[in-house]
Amino acid sequence: MLVLVVSFEHGLVWVLLGLLAAAALAELSLYAERASGESLSLGLFWEALTGTRVGMTWLARLGFSLLVVLNVTFAAREGKRAYWLLATVLATVPLLTLSQLSHAAAEGRFLPFFADWLHATAASVWMGGLLGFSALLLGPVRKMSAEARTELLRRAVPRFSTMATLSVLVLLITGVYASLLHVPSFSAFIGTPYGRALSMKLGVVVIMLFTGAINLIDQGREESFNIMVRFELVLAFGVFVTTGFLTSLPPP
């Protein structure tokens, strides 16, 4: 069963890489049209991909992500913990490209950039874990016996909750820092599009925290865990949507 789980996760990372490539295609197409004011063409797309900072950042992101997926493939084949650790470390590198196009990068200082990268890394650990749980619940775990599923969740949920708690602490610290950096006053927080988008994001995160607390209290009881994890995943999607609004809006 462990081999089945690893194979499933191995296939999932290739699917996610494909989705990332599709996102690059969509975003660069829109960026090329918006920046040039022209209709999209192959030449215009190629110019945006190879001749702009946004395009070069996307190339770096896809390249590093491919390296991560290849490393995961090798780790799944060899089954050694050191290779999985290396894959985990490498997975934080593509997140640097997110920070390169963020408001923090515009500050021109190391600390805002580093805090933004830490924020993205913590969010990836938390929400990536939710995605992994959901995928397993819909895949290999369903083929286990009821006793095996219960034991797996009983052992896995507290471990993930510990990692999720650390991630949330990092998110809170870096999020407060970014808020103080980009939203200088309470009136800006409630009276600007950026501030309202930030408040929506914080509200969704608070709901996610309560949902995670319920899972921890239940100790992974299957009846509620399946529903709550999927609900958390929907909320995580909401966080990504509001984050997208934040990156497209100028700070007050």
Topology:
Layout (H helix, E strand, L loop, with lengths): L1 H35 L5 H10 L1 H26 L2 H11 L2 H7 L2 H4 L3 H29 L7 H37 L3 H6 L1 H26 L3 H27 L4
Helix pairs in contact: 1-2, 1-3, 2-3, 3-4, 3-5, 5-7, 7-8, 7-11, 8-10, 10-11
Notes on the structure:
- The model is unreliable at 1-8 (pLDDT under 50).
- Helix 3 packs antiparallel against helix 5 (94-100).
- It contains eleven helices and no strands.
- With 252 residues, the protein is mainly alpha-helical.
- The protein has two domains: 1-101, no CATH class; 110-252.
Strand content: under 5%
State the total count of DSSP E strands: 0
Q: What structural class do helix, strand and pairing data support?
A: mainly alpha
- Low-confidence spans: 1-8
Calculate the terminal CA-CA distance, rounded to whole Å.
52 Å
The helix/strand order is HHHHHHHHHHH
Q: What is the C-alpha radius of gyration, as a whole number of Å? A: 20 Å
Number of H- or I-type helical stretches: 11
Number of domains: 2
Question: Concise description?
Answer:
This protein has helices spanning 2-36, 42-51, 53-78, 81-91, 94-100, 103-106, 110-138, 146-182, 186-191, 193-218, 222-248. It has 252 residues and is mainly α.
Notable characteristics:
disordered N terminus, mainly alpha, 87% helix, globular, 11 helices, 2 domains, 252 residues
